[in-house]
Specification:
Strand order of the largest sheet of chain A: 14-15-16-17-18-19-20-21
Structural class of chain A: alpha+beta
Largest interface: A-B, 105 and 88 residues
Radius of gyration of chain B: 22 Å
Number of helices of chain A: 5
Oligomer: heterodimer
Number of helices of chain B: 9
Largest sheet of chain A: 8 strands, antiparallel, barrel
Helix content of chain B: 55-70%
Distance between the termini of chain B: 73 Å
Structural class of chain B: mainly alpha
Chain lengths: ~450, ~200
């Protein structure tokens, strides 16, 4: 039964780098091969130790050298002005070597999609922690271990325009594709019945309230007539402006609301945002396209009055969207541990693998599944973007339950997301890891 | 009335089909002289490359210098990237070559072991045995020959496949596999001599 060929696959099986077919074959073989099962245990221990070891060397990334930046400027007249694209992610030390990332904003005034959002800081400090924390005074608190779900999932979300000022992206279908798979967007929710409900959907999954799918190849397009046309969070001028579009911008039309002179169209921008545009300000291509009425219309904001609606255009100011509901679109994310820490003062275990987030239909919970290990747990919304939960770790050295809290930050542009995960675990003393990844 | 470019943009509304290398567009943009793409690439992968360089060179400062060197090489040579490997793998390959050029020899790096490690043992519920075992294992890994450490890091930390690891190291996939097997064999010997009870582990 045993042979070397199988055994040689096991480290890659543990690393999660086999194809799914290969991994299944290995699993089949493992059933009948005690030698390989022993090797599996060894490699799991080795992998865990190597990752912990390597993670312990993770340091802050220094900025690109001035010489290189000068070189780039010298070689590239197209380079963005300083400040338009920050040379590095701003970081904020969280103590103990952990780092919280805040995604940079990339804004552009160039033609094309010009919906830009600011950062939405989801009440990082306002949500009371159910359990006394042992960590820092702000941001992520390290919850002490407790058998009850006491988790503080916080999200720092930054939504970025995805277009380079020189328009290079336009001609690059691959980039466009990558960007439409971006991890997170914030738009008003359409279907949720409570304000401030995060909506998390997988790519290709239909958002409740979306009447169109995202990947239909032939989709009627809205072509913008006019400059600085407002894109709104709902079908009406009393909804907040969430961005503007320019002459000749084109957006796939997802749905409509109203009729005649009062027609509004729900479109999806290149950034993956959903926004409403007044029908009279766009042409529809093809002109006779059938557009389904939107299944759900976002509730009207009670406080905004049409005459007072400010018109934020390309700014990073979130206040105008303060009443909007955060909306998270996710997919399978590559999950890479970049740092690990432990409240006991020692370096804990780390994992480096992919995970998938699957929201419940009503978005009241999100199930996270780690692909390689199959570890799966569910966190429940406790308000805003805060989710809490605990889970069991079937790994040999991580038995028992744990509480987890996650702080996320995302960027649309590069699909990257970063996050900070806090796991408090009775046996392993693993309390913190920092990870980063991207939508698949 | 609609500019040609806008037409091109709307044409195939991207479908969520098999995953291309998400970094490839960045390399293409860098090849066109887009500095922001380089910055983005650096943001995505700089920390991991630095980590690799640091473990390779055993010299934090030198590793940072070589990292800049790597990014300069990417800036200059992005146009020659053929997409035959993943960008991530390509970066590590450049990093390894640049590190070799930095003229350093391998010296086994013993981790800066956390001096406080044992101070944490007073936590009541933790499994001291597990942690001790892992610490012993980490120590043992750090005593491996450097090229064994390196391959473990590439496979388990950087998550490279067998083929990718072979590319970075410039060896065959078979060599990668036999080196891994050898690494485990060495670890087993070290651990069995440690006098610890490893249960079912490392007895094969």
């Amino acid at each position: 039964m045993h042979n070397r060929q199988w055994e040689a696959q096991i480290p890659f099986y543990v690393a999660g780098t086999l194809t799914s077919r290969e991994a299944r074959a290995v699993e089949q073989h493992l059933i009948g091969c005690e030698t390989c099962r022993a090797a599996l245990r060894d490699w799991q221990a080795i992998a865990s130790a190597v990752r912990t070891e390597a993670a312990s060397h993770m340091r802050d990334l220094p900025p690109l050298s001035p010489a290189l930046i000068a070189h780039m400027h010298g070689d590239s007249p197209m380079l963005a002005a300083p400040g338009v694209y920050p040379p590095r992610l701003p970081r904020e030390s969280r103590g103990r070597g952990a780092v919280r990332y805040v995604a940079p904003l990339t804004l552009t005034a160039a033609a094309g999609v010009v919906i830009a959002f600011g950062m939405l800081l989801a009440n990082l400090n306002s949500a009371p922690l159910p359990t006394a924390g042992t960590g820092e005074s702000s941001g992520v608190e390290v919850a002490t271990f407790t058998p009850t779900p006491t988790v503080d999932l916080m999200a720092t979300i930054a939504v970025m325009s995805t277009q380079y000022a020189d328009g290079t992206r336009d001609s690059d279908a691959a980039v466009a594709q990558a960007e439409t798979e971006a991890a997170v967007i914030i738009v008003p929710a359409f279907a949720t019945n409570t304000p401030n409900t995060p909506v998390i959907v997988l790519p290709g999954e239909t958002v409740p309230g979306d009447s169109g799918t995202l990947d239909t190849p032939v989709m009627p397009q809205a072509i913008v007539n006019g400059d600085a046309v407002n894109m709104r969070g709902g079908p009406g001028t009393d909804y907040a402006v969430i961005g503007t579009a320019e002459q000749a911008d084109r957006f796939p039309i997802l749905a409509r609301a109203g009729s005649g002179a009062d027609t509004w169209l729900l479109v999806e921008t290149t950034d993956g945002l959903n926004a409403w545009v007044y029908g009279a300000l766009v042409s529809i291509d093809p002109p006779n396209a059938q557009i389904a009425p939107a299944a759900t219309i976002p509730p009207r904001p009670p406080t905004l009055q049409p005459t007072q609606t400010p018109a934020p255009t390309i700014t990073a100011q979130p206040p105008a969207q303060a009443t909007n509901t955060p909306y998270i679109r996710d997919g399978a994310w590559t999950h890479v541990t970049t740092g690990v820490e432990d409240s006991c003062g020692a370096v804990g275990n780390s994992i480096s693998q992919e995970l998938i987030l699957v929201p419940s239909a009503d978005r009241s919970s999100v199930t996270l599944t780690y692909l390689q290990t199959g570890i799966s747990f569910t966190v429940y919304r406790v308000g805003g973007l805060n989710y809490a939960g605990n889970y069991n770790l079937p790994e040999p050295d991580l038995n028992g339950s744990a509480t987890i809290s996650v702080q996320l930050s995302f960027e649309i542009n590069g699909m990257a997301y970063t996050g900070q995960e806090t796991v408090n675990h009775a046996n392993s003393c693993l309390t913190r890891s920092l990870w980063a990844g991207r939508a698949r | 009335m609609v500019p040609a470019r806008a037409q091109a943009r709307m044409m195939p509304y991207p479908t969520l089909t098999p995953q291309p290398d998400p970094d490839l567009p960045l390399i293409q943009a860098i090849a066109r002289g887009d500095g922001r793409a380089l910055t983005e690439l650096y943001t995505r992968h700089g920390a991991n490359v630095l980590n690799y360089l640091t473990s390779y060179l055993d010299d934090r400062q030198l590793a940072e210098e070589v990292l800049q060197d790597v990014m300069m090489a990417v800036w200059k040579h992005a146009g020659s990237f053929r997409g035959e490997s993943k960008v991530r793998t390509w970066l590590l390959t450049i990093a390894r070559n640049r590190a070799i050029n930095a003229g350093r020899r391998y010296t086994p790096r013993l981790v800066e072991l956390d001096e406080n490690f044992h101070a944490g043992d007073d936590t009541p519920h933790e499994s001291a045995e597990t942690r001790t075992q892992q610490q012993l294992l980490r120590d043992a890994i750090n005593e491996l020959p450097k090229f064994h450490q390196e391959i473990l890091i590439l496979v388990f930390y950087h998550g490279l496949s067998g083929q990718e690891t072979a590319e970075v190291l410039g060896v065959s996939v078979g060599t990668v596999k036999s080196r891994l097997h050898r690494a485990k064999d060495l670890l087993r010997r070290v651990l069995q001599s440690s006098g610890e009870n490893w249960g079912e582990m490392f007895n094969a």
